[in-house]
Amino acid sequence: MRDKKKNRIPRPLEKSGTPATGALLTVEEVSKQLRVDATTVRRWIKNGAMDAVSLPHSDKRQSYRIRQATLDALLATSAI
User: Fold this and answer.
1) What residues pair up with 33 in beta bridges, in sequence order?
2) What CATH number does the domain containing 58 carry?
3) Under a CB-based contact definition with an 8 Å cutoff, are residues 12 and 23 in contact?
4) Which tens digits make up the pLDDT trace of 25-59?
5) Do 29 and 58 form a contact (C-beta atoms < 8 A)?
6) Which among 19, 33, 42, 75 has the fewest CB atoms less than 10 Å away?
């Protein structure tokens, strides 16, 4: 079933209501969770500070997807 608002297939959720560990997140979703601008996330990807999957594109801007496990590892290492 597609989400009518954005015409996307909903992400699989774990019992906790968060995206499944194998889920791929958009740059915008990661930026919201980290409370930084999407441009910052893209810069981290280009500099190699964050692993991401590059998607084929025809636009000016490269599209990426970040694995939930990558985000979880980043949050775990930066926890105080």
Assistant:
1) none
2) 1.10.1660
3) yes
4) 999 999 999 999 999 999 999 999 999 999 988 87
5) no
6) 75
